Amino acid sequence: MRLFDPHIHMTSRTTDDYQAMAAAGIAAIVEPAFWLGQPRTHVGTFEDYFLSLVGWERFRAQQFGIRHYCTIALNPKEANNPQVAGGVLALLPRYLEKDGVVAVGEIGYDDQTPAEDEAFVAQLELARAHKLPVLIHTPHRDKLRGTERTIDLLRAHGFPPELALIDHNNELTLPLVLDAGCWAGHSIYPATKMDEPRMVSLVQQFGGEKILVNSAADWGVSDALKVPKTAAAFAAAGIPEADIETICWKNPVRFFGQSGRLDLAEVAPVVDQRELFEGNSVLRGQSPRVDR
Amino acid sequence: MASLETALTSRLPEEAASWFRQALHKVRAKGEATDAFLIMWSGASRRLGQAPIGAPSDDEKKLPFFPVGWGADEFGRTLLLQGALAARLPEAHAALINELFVTGDLRERQAVLRALPHLPAPERFVAVGVEAVRNSAVPVLEAIACENAYPARHFPEEAFNQLVLKCLFCEVPLARVVDLARRVTPELRRMVEAYASERRAAGRSVPADIALVLG
What residue ranges define each of the domains in chain A, with the CATH number in brackets? Predict the structure, then answer.
């Protein structure tokens, strides 16, 4: 079964990860623009980050047969930094027009401050202007309240719920998100956020409609193979294969497909690494992979 | 009468052709803001698609150039860029080309590089072409190095030599480098010979197309 990891920060990961992901069946990924562990101090470093998401990282993924899409936004944590927030928002119209940018994200709340409200609303407007869905981060601290505020804000601005994917859900937030008509993401983590057995229970209770799972793997303790591992946990628990395919492939395709920029024909590219072998590329001496 | 514009639009679905005609009309209009141009340029690919441009008709063979093998997006972006330059003072040209290259995604960068020989007084943009050879995404390297007359015409010797070496390293066939023979110098021969001995010393194969340089 082809798998889709709809939330993974590959700029922080190695080629070993790409290799293992491809071997485990991951054929497409979405890399959301987010923070980098420590605060940035210049607008220009955001621009270089956006450029790596639409450039080098896309190329790197292709060499392992993985189709790389991204989302672009001012993230909620750095929305609180007045040194960069305005300048980053001003960059977005150009970057949101680029190929392979399939949503505005990650937007949403972190500390739930007025500055975050302002950036959130401004980026919902950008999503409308560029005809893109939105990928919404929910806070780790005071998550339930942050999720309620997110849903209220979407309603107050008349933003279509089917164009919103609210991420990092747990047992308490998922029912609210589904009731609101939004898509619900779950980040499967080794220790925090959500884990495989809990995710199995949620799917047994709520089914697969509008449910997504992701690894949210980044520079912290995380696991780039959590989507295949969760799919295996679903199968071991007797969840029908059709439902697993809905959650781990069809739902990300449906949600991000609303951008009009997710071309399914591109999703399983033929890999030919020969032209890169020995080049100044990510392949350093190992045998290139050639699909026939 | 064939024109570059109709060569593109006649190969596009009507919706894309109509988008392109309007876009070209806007970029040719004096006073169109650079920000608006950059946004239009970035969005061009998903409107025009990336299908390769096929062979020219007899009429089209008389055009100033014909982009066999380019994507529709690359051809369309080239024409938009020609229009945008024509609507701007010459002193603004280099900055615009640089901006498009530096802030471009892979396909946008490819389009800038393929367009270079077809722009007015193209020698002004040599820094962008040389910088492109330092990039490591192979499709971007191919856009400047392959089937492109620009490097042989305008690169200084050192930069041209680096391009040839980079192609060898990335296994981009040297036969695709336009007018390579005309730019072979003793220094390029020395560099390619050194590359070949390094490969032999490491027990690796030596690409046959070094003969295009060493003779």
Answer: 3-276 (3.20.20.140)
